[in-house]
Design goal:
Elements (H helix, E strand, L loop, with lengths): L12 H11 L33 H4 E2 L12 H5 L3 H12 L16 E2 L29 E7 L16 E2 L13 E7 L15 E7 L10 E4 L2 E4 L2 H7 E7 L6 H4 L4 H17 L11 E2 L4 E2 L31 H8 L19 H7 L2 H14 L13 H9 L10 H12 L3 E2 L7 H12 L2 H4 L4 E2 L25 E2 L7 E2 L12 E2 L9 H4 L14 H7 L12 H8 L3 H13 L1
Parallel strand pairs: 1-12
Antiparallel strand pairs: 2-4, 3-9, 5-6, 7-8, 10-11, 13-14, 15-16
Helix pairs in contact: 4-12, 9-11, 13-18
Length: about 575
């Protein structure tokens, strides 16, 4: 794969860009926003560009704007001699894992969410909207969110990221053939129309999983005790939602922002909201708006020492530093491939219901001997070969001393790749439409949550799991001004069939305009309900079930812009 760092454009593009730029708005569809025809990258070696051109700073920006734009290494990867490790990590990300007991991609299962990471992150970007849930469908970035509506907690008898795949003789925790996704139309308070008559449409997903689709009994926790639900109770008390993956490029750069700076952002927003009489604007499970201090940090006392870190990753802000965040977690639990710091299976939140059901299943018992002899041909684990099939199956599935399937070197290469992905340079930055769109974006209030820029700190490596301890282990990004367009704060949009808990971290906007080129999902928002930027914007203007979106006033202002001005904001968003 060709890698490009600050590469100049091909000769002759200047004239083409000029012509296409002139055509840009004349080609607008009367029923929608202007179509983006070209991306003016330019050559930073020969032209003056504003600092926001370098979205990832001087160390983290690539000028590649082709189909591989999201896959490029940062300058730091090159500077620190990590290109080989980066390429090896990329290979581990892209290839399917299997049931072999030797080789780089061994160890799939016994149950899994996907066979590899690339299924969920097509082109290294966002998952794409789906009309059915199939684990083996490329570009299906959806994870199932199955939760107790009484407590808002995940159910106990499946994993936090529920699996629908299994290696024989084991059976999938959820039968994906019974999962149904329906896309319903939604009409907002403005009848899906701007004051000048331009119309738009809105859709949202409804997901249903019947009681019969679950392999193990459905368990929830009430008052500290696990309780099994009947089918009637399940139908009344359990909710199912979808959450899609987001782009993984640039996450190493946002990891370099100091914890204290993110804390300062939360504090500033808390104080602003209190100044206008709102004490409920920040998630109370994370932030104490009375004292302006954290109620919750991220820590890892299982592999690490419990050191506390500020939360910054995932919609739910469930993760802290990237070296123990979503990617480090997913390379283990999506495929169930073990490594030295995780020598156990990812099965269910309680750690026992899937194993118990499997150990009692006659079909699993019938195939277990052949399976375990393949996994452990030398009887290195005699506790799995006693002849008591029920006991052997349960002991194997709950083991904390499984053999390693990913080496430490492979895992390090994977994380070098993960932390080493660059951000595409902003496009069209010298055009009048970009400049005007940027002004309007700030004027109507979008930049309040989609904070444009941050400054990285000294960027000393932080790993809550204490696997990586040295700065030399990873590419680093000290003292860089970066432009991710997020405040790392959770807000509420009050949408129909909203995200679980209603609180969602502001998603970075950088690079998303290249999604179509890169083969990623072009949809936006946490469940891919927005098929274009206009729909994403208008979903920010909801007042559903008595709540008012935190962005509501900005959407009122957006509605009252002229069509040209709305198109300029869209042009800007697609260009950053």
């Amino acid at each position: 794969m060709n890698k490009h760092l600050f590469s100049p454009p091909k000769g002759g593009w200047g004239v083409l860009i000029l012509i296409l730029s002139c055509l840009l708005f004349s080609c607008a569809d009367d029923e929608g926003p202007a179509k983006l025809i070209t991306w003016d990258i330019g050559d930073p070696a020969t032209a003056e560009y504003n600092e926001d051109y370098y979205a990832g700073g001087l160390l983290g920006t690539t000028t590649d704007n082709t189909a591989t734009a999201f896959k490029q290494p940062t300058k730091s990867v090159e500077n620190e001699g990590m290109v080989t490790a980066f390429n090896e990590g990329e290979y581990l990300f892209e290839k399917d894992y299997n049931t072999n007991t030797e080789g780089a991609f061994r160890g799939l299962g016994p149950v899994y969410v996907r066979r590899s990471c690339i299924y969920c992150h097509p082109g290294y970007g966002h998952g794409a909207r789906q009309t059915e849930y199939k684990a083996d469908n490329h570009r299906n970035g959806y994870l199932l969110v199955i939760y107790d509506k009484t407590t808002n907690a995940y159910i106990r008898s499946v994993a936090g990221m529920p699996q629908t795949g299994a290696v024989k003789p084991f059976k999938a925790p959820i039968d994906e053939n019974q999962i149904k996704i329906a896309w319903n139309s939604y009409t907002d308070e403005w009848d899906n129309q701007f004051p000048d008559g331009e119309a738009y449409s809105l859709i949202y997903p409804e997901v249903t999983i019947p009681y019969t689709a679950y392999y193990a009994p459905i368990m929830v926790q009430r008052g500290g005790t696990d309780v099994e639900l009947s089918e009637e109770e399940y139908n009344n008390e359990i909710g199912v939602l979808l959450e899609s993956t987001i782009g993984i490029y640039g996450t190493g750069l946002t990891d370099a922002i100091p914890d204290e700076d993110i804390t300062a952002q939360w504090k500033a927003e808390s104080q602003y909201f209190k100044s206008i009489g709102r004490t409920d604007a920040l998630n109370p499970s994370l932030w104490n708006s009375t004292t302006d201090t954290w109620n919750s940090f991220y820590s890892n006392a299982l592999q690490g020492d419990g050191t506390k870190y500020v939360r910054r990753y995932t919609y739910a802000l469930s993760r802290g530093p990237i070296l123990d965040a979503a990617g480090a977690n997913a390379i283990w639990n999506i495929t169930n491939v073990t490594r030295s710091d995780r020598r156990y299976h990812y099965l269910d939140l309680a750690g026992k219901y899937y194993a118990t059901k499997s150990s009692q299943d006659p079909d699993v018992q019938a195939g277990f001997t052949e399976y375990i002899n393949h996994i452990d041909p030398t009887n290195a684990h005699p506790e799995w070969h006693t002849g008591d099939l029920q006991k052997d199956i349960y002991t194997y599935l709950t083991s904390k001393s499984l053999d390693l399937e990913m080496t430490d070197t492979q895992y390090k290469s994977f994380m070098v790749w993960h932390r080493g992905l660059a951000v595409p340079a902003a496009r069209n930055t010298t055009t009048d439409n970009f400049k005007r769109g940027k002004e309007l974006f700030a004027q109507i209030g979008c930049a309040a949550c989609h904070r444009p820029s941050w400054q990285t700190g000294d960027d000393h490596i932080q790993d809550p799991a204490k696997f990586f301890l040295s700065d030399s282990d990873m590419p680093r990004y000290p003292s860089q001004k970066i432009w991710p367009y997020t405040d790392f704060v959770q807000h509420r949009l009050w949408m129909k069939n909203d995200i679980r808990t209603g609180w969602c971290r502001t998603t970075p906007l950088w690079g998303r305009g290249l999604a179509a080129k890169c083969g990623s999902g072009t949809e936006r928002l946490h469940d891919c309900r927005a098929r274009n930027v206009v729909e994403a914007i208008m979903w920010h203007g909801c007042r559903f079930e008595g709540g008012t979106s935190d962005a509501y006033q900005s959407i009122v202002k957006f509605r009252n812009l002229t069509k040209e001005e709305r198109n300029q904001i869209i042009f800007f968003i697609e260009s950053i």
